[in-house]
Structure prediction request, 456 residues.
Amino acid sequence: MDNSTPDTTALIIDHIDGILPAAEKEQLEKQLSADNRMKEEWENLLATTEAVRLYGLQQKVGTIHHEMMSEWQAPVKTISPVRRIARYTLAVAAGVLLVVLGITGYNFYQLSADKIFTGNYSYYELSNTRGAGTEATTAEKAYAEKRYADVIKIYDSGNEAGQQTAFIAGVSALELDNSTRAIACFKEVIALNRQAGEKLLEDEAEYYLSLSYIRNGDYDYALELMKKIQEDPGHLYREKITDKLIRQVKLLKWR
Amino acid sequence: MEVINNLPDTELVAKLRDGKSMDEAIRTLYRNYFGNLCWYVMNNSGSRQDAEDVFQEVVVNFIDLVQKNKFRGESTVKTFLFSLNRHTWLNELKRRGRALAREEKYERGQEKTEMDAGHYIADREGKAEVTRLVGELGETCRKILLLFYYENLSMREILETLHYENEQVVRNKKYKCLKQLEQMITEKPYLKQSLKNLLHG
Prediction:
């Protein structure tokens, strides 16, 4: 129920609007503190002006809100069926490409010199180097008994010099994870063959030398040798040097 | 149109407080913060439309607080808006009766690290109802009250805008309109507290 008089209400509104003369303002404030009903009307009217202000603010923000949303909203375009099919095709192609790239990337990061070496290295069986009825050398006996350090010692002593001892010393070095030493041994086999005009264990030495280079991180040397083996139709290890192996070694160069 | 995306907080707040370049300051709020705040709502069970509505409400509340000097710059505008946005959206979720347990847990966890913006947005529905009633006023009344109480125009300026005979006519019209609105609001007893919240909230 509204018990206020128009005069009082007008005074209250003037007070809220800040246009009430000082004397009347002071008198009104005394009345407000003494009269709860009047004070309630003052509070209600003040809150009403606050509601108007808030409404104005909401309208302003609302206008800018719609403007901003329209600005950001991309225009909706109709797409012809042909373009839609082309888009789907492109999306599928992009998906396949992503999968291929993902697999390639995964393989790239999984690739290592040790993995390539292990995948291509096989223990060299002695029976391949010596015919029946011929007595094995001390180095060959040590190799057969897997005493690789002894094989290298015998090779170093020079007592059993020759391509066979150099070769099994190279394989022994690989068994002992000493690829630098293995490289020297296999090179020795090739050098001795050159001096003697022979080809004894030449193909074997070249293949194991290429593997030793890979393990040692000498990829350029390894690639050069592998290409030589691949281009030699009569090479014993030609089939082992696949294009995939060469690609993997090339990839290793980028790691 | 001037684009001011990188206003320092102090300048942005000043523009919102004094009302000068208000439109551009509001656009700056949208350009700088809508994306992230929208992301929060959309990643917490909200739709794009929810995010837009919440952000609009957050901007209104923020400007209101700035103009009432209740934002004192103790946190950055960004932090404050994030807090308002989070509280507004969680309130809305609760209202819809599907507040997520993890969000409530998150809310509890944040209480110590952020200012409590929750009380600023209390009684959202009551406030919305009160301002809705302003929209229900006749167009002339609404215009006079807005020009005077929101645009802060003088009686003379309103007279020039609305072409009344004289200032006294405008003054009387404003008196009647304000009284009419007050009655519309106070006729609804459940809005009594909302009315008080407009003053003190």
